[in-house]
Design goal:
The protein is built from seven helices and seven strands; from the N terminus they run βαβαβαβαβαβααβ. It is α/β, with parallel strands linked by helices. The chain binds NADPH dihydro-nicotinamide-adenine-dinucleotide phosphate. NADPH dihydro-nicotinamide-adenine-dinucleotide phosphate binds next to α1 and β2.
Length: about 260
Amino acid sequence: NQRWSLQGMTALVTGGTRGIGFAVVEELAALGAVVHTCSRNQAELNERLQEWQSKGFKVSGSVCDLSSRDLREKLMETVSSVFDGKLNILVNNAGITHLKSFEEQSLEDYTRVMSTNLDAPYHISQLAYPFLKASGCGSIVFISSVAGSMALPGLSAYAASKGAINQITKSLACEWSKDNIRSNAVSPWGVKTTIGKDTPETSADIQEQFLRLIAGTAIARLAEPEEISSLVAFLCLPAASFITGQVILADGGYTAGGCW
Ligand code: NDP
């Protein structure tokens, strides 16, 4: 059934070596897509590429630090040549966070978060535009966050980057529908990944606040990456052809409200 298949489609997933991105690469490849991914760590990328090859998935990859404008341009040149100028799916997934109170966020923290979480997906989407258009049927999925719609402890800069992503999702849906390109965002609540591992300095207060919020969520646990990648894949399928401009929460019921 073609409505539930990505056979013959090409996809770029940023940050596919770990966490949600890794699960998205596997989900799209399992549905038949040919996938290209990127990360900053060559050794880890090579390991993953071997793993995928042994599973029979068609995945290639390149090293790219998405916070650099020049390297983003190089990445998209590679993607264009690997996929012969035609891209059906772009998943803007790579992201970072620093869990710190507003007054503790340094200019470096702020700049690093904004360049990775906002500048990169914005620019990559612009660079991908001709290839998405040339495919005749394009879909962009941004990995946003519940933090893009609600204040959460220690996430002020991150929340600003994700709130902006939510708005870009809607602008692109309206501007690019003429080219048969859809644009949606997926906003997860806490997911079991390696995010934040670079900031072990997170205060006990913030950690404590998160534990309380998770305990008060309808489904009171962290999500597995596969519980997010399934929604991402759905949004890329022909079956989702009328869904665009949406920010969809996969939040275990966190925003449903009153926890008791
Ligand atoms: P992980 O840290 O587990 O994985 C992030 C991936 O992105 C890695 O492959 C990493 O590889 C890559 N990456 C990070 N920075 C860059 C960069 N500058 N250039 C290229 N690749 C990069 O994170 P998650 O899977 O948790 O996060 C994925 C997305 O999900 C992010 O946008 C995040 O904001 C969002 N999210 C996560 C939540 C969670 O609780 N985990 C909740 C809500 C949203 P490498 O470091 O080697 O470059």
